[in-house]
Design goal:
The complex is a heterodimer of chains A (about 260) and B (about 290). The relative contact order of chain A is 0.17. By secondary structure, chain A is an alpha/beta fold. In chain A, the strands form 2 sheets. Chain A has a 6-stranded mixed beta sheet, with helices on both faces. Chain A has a 4-stranded antiparallel beta sheet with strand order 2-1-4-5, covered by helices on one side. Chain A is built from 11 helices and 10 strands. Chain A has helices spanning about 5-10, 55-65, 95-100, 115-125, 130-145, 150, 165-175, 195-205, 220-225, 245-250, 255-260, and strands spanning about 15-30, 30-40, 45-50, 75-80, 85, 100-105, 180-185, 210-215, 230-235, 235-245. In chain A, helix 4 (about 115-125) runs parallel beside helix 7 and helix 7 (about 165-175) runs parallel beside helix 8. With about 290 residues, chain B is an all-alpha fold. Chain B has helices at about 5-10, 15-50, 55-60, 70-100, 105-120, 125-140, 145-170, 175-180, 185-215, 220, 245-250, 260-290; strands at about 60, 65-70. A two-stranded antiparallel ribbon of chain B has the order 1-2. In chain B, helix 8 (about 175-180) packs antiparallel against helix 9 and helix 9 (about 185-215) packs antiparallel against helix 12. Chain B is globular. The chains are: A alpha/beta (about 260), B mainly alpha (about 290). The interface of A and B includes residues 67, 111, 122 and 125 of A.
Amino acid sequence: MFTIAEQKGERTMEKDVLIKVSNLDLHYGDNHVLKDIHLEIVRNNVTALIGPSGCGKSSFLRCINRMNDFIRGAKVTGEIIIEDMNIYSRSTDVISLRRDVGMVFQKPNPFPMSIYDNVAYGPRLHGMKNRTKLDEIVENSIKGAALWDEVKDKLNSSGLGLSGGQQQRLCIARAIATNPDVVLMDEPTSALDPLATAKIEELIRQLKEDYTVVIVTHNMQQAARISDYTAFFLLGDLVEYGQTSKIFTSPKDKRTEDYITGRFG
Amino acid sequence: MDRKEREAGKGMSFRRILDNTMSILLWITALSLVLLVFGLIAYIFFRGWSALSWEFITQPPRDSMTKGGISTPLVGTFQLVVLSMIFALPVGIATGLFFAEYSSGGTFTHLLRLAVRCLAGVPSVVFGLFGLSLFVIMLGLGSSLISASLTLACLVLPLIITSAEQAFLAVPQDYRDGSYALGATKWQTVYKVVLPAAMPTVITGAILSIGRVAGETAPIIFTGAAFFTPEIAKSIFDEVMALPYHILVLATAGTNISETRHIQYGTVLVLLALVLGISSIGIALRNHYRKCSR
């Protein structure tokens, strides 16, 4: 595994790094959105990306599964290496990348189809036809998203009939149904009430047993509650990155301290 | 506001009068529209009701169209509608899909969009002449069911394209993002998510175009509608009778126009019922899709 001791002075040397980001720059046209980002994301941990609006944290998240490809004028330079493979190299198959790097969006976005079909969508895309296996995947994924007891009797009813929190857990079930290594979450609770948020947070803590979670949040308490590592972005720069406990108790950078103590943002 | 003013306000101040007048005016406008439509339907119904019978629908016209029914134009219109939809729907939906999902907004797209807009503004009689020169003469299809259907298909294409495009654009971007994020290709996303979600609205567009196709006269006069045929078209290369043209013939070129008034109104009534019937099927289908996606 890579060592990053010389970069940030963090002691992640002995940690199991899954995603290694180096020299990453992102432009939207003339707009320099991310500036020379270096970051190592540790396997089976929750990494939170925090920062004020427009700091580039969501854009960074969308670099990891190449959803920025859809934005006209977006240009990425540098490297993101997942499991020894640079996802921005020419030979990368974006389709299989997105199967391995799932994503949950800000607004719950179940497809207008049944709960079962929503979860089976990913596996079916990738050629899974065996009904018994599909049933198994669907059940396990919904259980994995802590939704099974609420929907097991109505798998054939529409996903749009669920409450907001349930819909978001359905989206999480959908994301983990392709058995990804990484689950990206883009402010997954910002459209939810506190109770639903608490459930999702609990779920995220469980998810890291099997997945590596990267979550964008505008809520610092949330970052402090659920993440193991925190990255603070400001105006396209990665200001500080390290263990959440350290970032929130003894930030090294003045700007980080100002942000987490609520002096701006 | 002191007491005096408030009492003055109790009377009909100008803005209160204006307010009431506007409410009444808008209600009258809306009501008169409803009255107009229902009045029209009721008028046609009462004038044409006496002509209706089982024979009227199942028998072809007889004795220089002064007797008998309208089975031949009825079936002809049905054939025209079905055939023109078979041509127009796939092309129209595909073009709408191209605009909404695939086009990049370059010069070619602009040109194509301009072409569609121009097509929508062309008078229907021009389509008739176009169909005559292209399908009937150049392609040698003759004055026939297929020529008329192709001409009608050209006529409704802009309508179908525009409504299909709107339907696809109305599908939330969230659905596409969700699909792509799971590793779907563009076609998988379109086929599995965008198309089903847009289907109800696409069908609504198709319904509108069916009404248009069934009621058009000018495009088919030159391309395949016959003044009179003894029986229904057995092949797509036969000429057909069609309800709108039959109405025109009865009302302007019959041997005894005033004597056949009730037949004319009866035919109009059947055309109206046919269009409404087809529309109801479309609406039922749309509701079915809506229920499925909810």
